[in-house]
Structure formats: C-alpha cells, structure tokens
Design brief:
The protein is an alpha/beta fold. The chain is built from ten helices and eleven strands. Helix 2 links the parallel strand 4 and strand 5. Helix 1 packs across helix 2, helix 1 packs parallel to helix 9 and helix 3 crosses helix 4. About 45% of the residues are buried.
C-alpha cells in the first residue's frame, strides 16, 4: 500500500465492468453551505478538501445537482478539472430543492434531460461515468424516468446508470428497464437494510452506502473496538462497512481536512474476526 495514497488500502471495486476505483470514495454533499444549501463559508477550503481527497488516493467522488443546489458540482470542477486520469465523478439527478431544507422528487423525462445536460456543463465533462436516478418520483412512471436516462446513455452523455433510494422491488423493476450498475441507499452500522445489498453482492452491482457514518460517534458498541485500535469510533464504522461486503463502496463526506484525513486512514484498518462478530 502506498503510504502517500492510503485510500488504496481499501482495495478496489469495478463498476459496470470497466470502472475500477478504490473502495473508499468521497461524498461531496457536505462541502456546501449549512443544510446543504448555498455555498460553503470558505470555498477555497472546500476545494482544498477535494484536492486532498484525490491526493490521498480517492478516485470516486459522488455528488448530485441538488447539493447546494449546483454548488457541489461547481466546486468539484473548480478544484479538480482537468480531472486526473482514473478519477470517476458520479452525480445524480431527479431531486430538486424548492428552498432551504426542502427536497422534492422530479423524475419527469424533460427534467432529467435538462438536469443531466446541466451537470455535464457544470462538471465540464462530455460524458458522466455514473449518473444515478436520485429517487423515484411517485407521480412519474419509472419507465419514463429510466427511459430518458437510457436515451441519454445511447447519446453518449451517460456511461453507466445507477439508482438511489430504491427498495428491492424497485430495483428489480429498474433492471428490466435499464442496465443498472450501482445502488446508493442509506446503510451504516446502526441502519442495515440488507435486502438490496444482498442483490448487489449476488449480481455484481456496486453498493454505495449514503449516510455511512450514521450515529457512529455515539455508538457504544464501537467504543471498545476503537480503543483497541487507537482510533475514533467513526473510523471503526468505516472499516466495518469495508469488511461487511466486497460490493460496498463507502463515501464518507466532510468539509474538514482533518476529518478527511481520519476517514481515509480508516481504509487501512483491519478488524479481527472476533471484532466483526462483536459488531454484528
């Protein structure tokens, strides 16, 4: 393992058969302002966090047009374009922000097309490697929403399609409509809905847990394991995710350089069989 690129210690995962990335990514939601609304207080510091993540060996960055909105994508391009070879920037569409603290689904084909094309411009890309439907819009048939992503894929604007916030039945339906290569659902040591993860493991899809830290800082079960390794509980929560499944691609996010360094260092932690059994 390259000591200068500690994210590599997490090993690799191949998405869609042709995108091989380190199994510890970076979630770029929290580089925005409070409440994921507006710009951060210090945009230069946010850009430095992104640059440092790549220096540490992170080569998968996850974002969405709704983070800010638009702020996260703009910061990624400002910090990292022209992108280093091998860096995968994944984004999402299908959720809008009517106001601060408000999130709403919009899966209309016209909206998804406009959202994807706007993300391409903000990220300064000709093609988005992984474009994810952020959620299902109950007012729009899934066939229409995913059908538009398939058309965008055929036009060369999307390389691979992923989904987010999908239940097992949703995923089964989606996979009849498009080639789905990843699922991004909430999953952490306190919240473990395993049905979709099991499908990903069985069929070779990437599972990208959002909210990977959860309430780890207050999780009592993590305390003795963290003490034994001389780290914080959050690091053990990340190491636990990496050990839980080879399909797992955690994306802990932060706006702090210090927290980033600690999170990425967790890629090198190895929990014993007894510790894993203790944590469940």
């Amino acid at each position: 393992m390259d000591a200068q690129r500690p994210a590599a210690a997490a090993g690799t995962l191949t998405i869609g058969g042709d995108l091989t990335v380190s199994r510890l990514g970076f979630g770029a939601m929290r580089i925005t302002g409070p409440g994921i609304w507006g710009p951060p207080a210090d945009s230069a510091a946010a850009r430095r966090v992104l640059q440092r993540a790549v220096e540490l060996g992170v080569d998968f960055i996850d974002t969405a047009d709704s983070y800010g909105p638009e702020v996260s994508e703009r910061l990624i391009a400002a910090a990292l374009h022209p992108y280093p070879r091998g860096l995968v920037v994944a984004t999402k569409g299908g959720m809008v922000r009517p106001g601060a603290g408000e999130w709403a689904a919009d899966g209309r084909p016209a909206h998804l097309r406009a959202a994807c094309e706007a993300s391409l411009k903000r990220l300064r890309l000709e093609r988005i490697d992984l474009y994810q439907l952020h959620c299902i819009d109950p007012r729009v048939p899934l066939e229409e929403s995913l059908g538009e992503l398939v058309r965008l894929q055929a036009e060369g604007k999307i390389r691979h399609i992923g989904v987010s916030n999908f239940r097992p039945a949703d995923l089964e339906r989606a996979r009849r409509l498009a080639r789905i290569v990843s699922v991004q659902n909430r999953y952490n040591i306190d919240e473990r809905p395993g049905e979709v993860l099991a499908v990903c493991e069985r069929d070779g899809l990437a599972f990208i847990p959002w909210g990977p830290i959860g309430r780890a800082a207050a999780n009592a079960a993590l305390r003795p394991v963290a003490r034994a390794h001389g780290v914080e509980r959050i690091a053990i929560a990340i190491a636990w995710l990496l050990a839980k499944s080879p399909a797992m691609l955690p994306i802990p996010g932060t706006g702090s350089l210090e927290h980033l360094e600690r999170n990425v260092a967790a890629a090198g932690l190895r929990l014993s069989a007894a510790e894993l059994a203790q944590l469940g």
